[in-house]
Structures are given as C-alpha cells and as structure tokens.
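ok posting inputs for the D-xylulose job
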Amino acid sequence: MSLILGLDLSTQSLSAVVLDSTKGVIVTSDSVNFGEELPHYGQVHGFDDSGEGGEVHANPLMWLEALDLLLERMKEGGCSFSEISAVSGSGQQHGSVYLRKCFAQQLARLSPRHDLKNQLASCLARDSSPIWMDSSTLAECAEITEAVGGSEQVCAKSGSIAIERFTGPQIRKFAKNEPEAYHQTGTIHLVSSFFASIMAGKSLAIDHGDAAGMNLMNLSTKDWDLELVEATAEQLMEKLPPCASSATQSGPISSYFVEKYGFSPTCETVLWSGDNPCSLVGMGAASPGKLVISLGTSDTLFAALPELKTNPSAYGHVFGNPIEGYMSLICFKNGSLAREAVKEQFGLSWSDFESRALSRSVIGNDGLLMLPFYEPEITPKLDLGGALFSEDGDHGAQRTVRAVLEGQFLNMRVHSDWLGVDLKEIYLTGGASENDGIAQVLANVFGLPVERLEVPGSAVIGAALRAAHALGENLSDLEEKFCKTKAGGRIEPENAAKAVYDRMVEPFRLFLAEQ
Ligand code: ADP
Ligand code: XUL
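and the output
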C-alpha cells in the first residue's frame, strides 16, 4: 500500500497527517488553528459560547474553509496527494450539522473553481452547529428519559443516560425551538459524517463509534433505536443517515479533491469516526488492556471493553470500538481549559508552569484541595461558577498550579472505578501530554506508570490507521509501526506519592459531595 491520509476536525483545529504504511513513517503533517488562522469567524477557541443557558455552537463554514486552507497549503508544500490510496478522519464527538435536502445534490456537483464554503453555505438548514461543550438541553434530556421509561432504560439501550451534549437531546431542542428550520432539514450529520460526506462527494452513513454518542443508537443491534428516535423528535428517522461499521469503504474521493488538489481518482474514502474512538486506535489500545487518558481541550479517559457493560450514572458512556466491540469513555470538560485558566492567571508559559510553579510545590499540597471547575463540569455534573478551594486565601502560583492538576486527576480517579479494568499502565495523549510535570502528577495520583507514544496526535493517526485497516492492512503490523512508546518517555510514580494520594481520595470525595 502507498500513502494514507488521516484528518482530525477537533474543537480548536483541523489537522492532517500522511502516513507511509509500508515504510512505517509519517511523511508530512499540518494543522489549521481556527482562532488564529480564521479570525474572521470570531471563534477564538473554535466555538461561540455566548449563547444562553450553556449553549455552545461552532460555525460549520469555518470548518469547510479550514479544509480548503489546509489542503491548499499542503499542496503548495509539495504533498503528493496523487499517491494517497485511502483517507479517513476523526471528528469532535456529538456535534451536529443540519442540512437541507439539496445537500447530496450539491455535493455531487462541486466545482473545483470555487471553494467548499461558498458552494455548501446554501445547504445549511441551521447556520451553526451545537458542539460537545453545549449543556443547554437539560429539559430535553428529561423529556426523552420520561418518554423511554427512565434513565436506566435509556442507558441500557444507548450506552449512556440522556446527556446534554449528546446529539439526540440537541436535535430535540432544535425541533422544539425552530420547527420551521427543523422541517427544512433533510439530513442531520455528525461532525464526523459531515466531513466524511464532503470527502466522498455524497451523503454517507454514521459509523458505530460516533453514532453511540447520540442517545439514538441501540448498542446491542448497532442500529437506530425506534423508541429513542420517536422520543427525540418527529420525523427524525427520515433525517438520520444509516448506521454502519466504522470500517466501511465509502467509495472513491470526490472529483472536487481530484481536480483541485491532485488526489488520485482511485483514492478510497473510509467512514470517519469520533475523536475518542479514533484515539483508541491511534494509541494502539483497540484490544482491551490499556487505559488511555487524553489531555486535550477536555480531558477524556477511555478503554476498549472486553464485553458490553453499561454504567447508568451521568458520566459513564459506552461507544462502538471502531475496530470491534465496544469502548468506554468518561469526559471531563475542565481539561486544558482549566489548566490554561491557571497558567493565564499567573502569566506563566507552559515551561514556567512546570519548572517555576509545579516543581516548587509539594506532593499533596499540604492537604489543599481544589475542584477545578472553571466551566460547569460534566463529570461530576456541577456548576460552581468557578474553581473552588478547600481553604480560603490567596494560594499563589505554585500551590494553585499543583491544586488544579491534583484536583483534575483525583476527580478522574474517583470517577473511573466503575470500569473494572485491571490497570497496569496509563497511556497518555493530547496536547498537554508532552508536559512531563503534568504526566508525573498523573502517575503519582493513580500510582501507575505513564507511557507516551513517540508520535503525538493519536486521533489523527488513529484515523489514518483505520483507513489502512479498512483497506485490508493488518492492525498489529500498523500498531507496531505507528504506536511505538516514546524512548525515555515513561514516567514512574514516585514512591512517597502513592500513600499521600490514597489518603486524599476520601477527603476529595467528601469535598465533592458537599457541593
Ligand atoms: P483538542 O484536540 O481538544 O483541540 P489538543 O489535544 O490538541 O486539543 O490539546 C490542545 C491543548 O493542549 C491546548 O489548549 C493547550 O492548553 C494544551 N497544551 C499544549 N502544549 C502544552 C504543554 N506544553 N503543557 C500543557 N498543556 C499544553
Ligand atoms: C466525548 C466528548 C469530547 C469530544 C471533544 O464525549 O464530548 O471528548 O469528543 O473532542
């Protein structure tokens, strides 16, 4: 096989990686940051959170403009698009795009003389997309839950109780508040299936990995659940694309990309999946046994499940494993957002954060606890209007930096015990994973070694590996080539730390319970 392209449409950026799957090397990679490179959308971090009641939306035209910008820049940089034999991608989960009935037709006749944004703008039935950070659908979650007979029922069917950021409750809110625009919607896509459709030049299915993040798919049958669909919105079934295996080959790439960027007309497209399912593959963790923690805009903790097992709490989710079976996921909204808030509060660089602040504080912070929920948190569901310390006073940069990290990782530890996975190591990924100081605190809080991979960007690599695997390449061979642990990157827990954090778990639980 020749070259494989992976794309990742995440919260803050659109990234690409080109792999040579035979030689086991990354040929090139690039990324467009929405806030920095497309400032005219006014979405500094890739979204607009100025809406009411926890509404967080992003502009789908910004994503389309980013795709043209990224491919144009790679072409100018000499990327051999003509040698790429397969492409797939990864998308931020749960976000949805509402398209008029003309979408498929318009996709089929895209002209390379114009850009994607201008040619597809008229197909949007809704000019913004609710994304995973949106928490505005409390009422809709309650309505769906009641119609289906309770949270346990919704969870047994879909793998999660009704969750505000999940697509079903978002669709219900749209149908209730904007019935006219809902009526004009021909197809509702996820971020992942929207971009997969753009690449293939036709409206495609939603893969099992990402479909499970909608509160609409039945995990056992891996198809839309009639009862959930009916409880969500009228005439929804006709607006949902089919569900399909993540490894589905979806035909040759759209002629738009062939003519504009020089892709081969035989380049095969493969369904996209969610960023967490893709990361599972990119971390070499698609077979059960490894716990992965991703420190991105949000922090997530996930693992392949040996068997289907659900947890009817507000924070445990089960998605399709894009290779086979299922995976669990827990999402913490205050990830990098909270670490950045502290970094900015004290005017630190990431290197100061580690060397001038963290390393000058003591393990356990002399008992100071922090609930680092700068934004309303989803695990656990708590809106404190900002971070909360267990002691009053001005704690200064050193103790605050340690407090945010210890608070985040203690919170992960107390909310991940239901997985029942026998933990030996943590595989760490995401933007903050390269920070050794942060990785050390994580190792200490869990009392487990932390490994990082040689190549960062597990979602985008995972997307490319999925494409190669769907076209017949052996997954173990691909993992051996692209999921190597970083030499010297292993971080062992410090001896004295385990006992300190074991003692902090109960006070932390209590502090949470008091809120
Ligand atoms: P996403 O995919 O959710 O957009 P990433 O996994 O790319 O996010 O992570 C981006 C985040 O990583 C940035 O917002 C930044 O806060 C964080 N980050 C980047 N470098 C470092 C570092 N050296 N130390 C800590 N955090 C970092
Ligand atoms: C997972 C979740 C986030 C998004 C953001 O449930 O909401 O991890 O996928 O990338």
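notes: Residues 284-454+485-515 form a domain with the Nucleotidyltransferase; domain 5 fold (CATH 3.30.420.40). Residues 10-13, 296-297, 336, 339-340, 350, 430-432, 434-435, 438 surround adenosine-5'-diphosphate (ligand 1) (CB under 6 Å).
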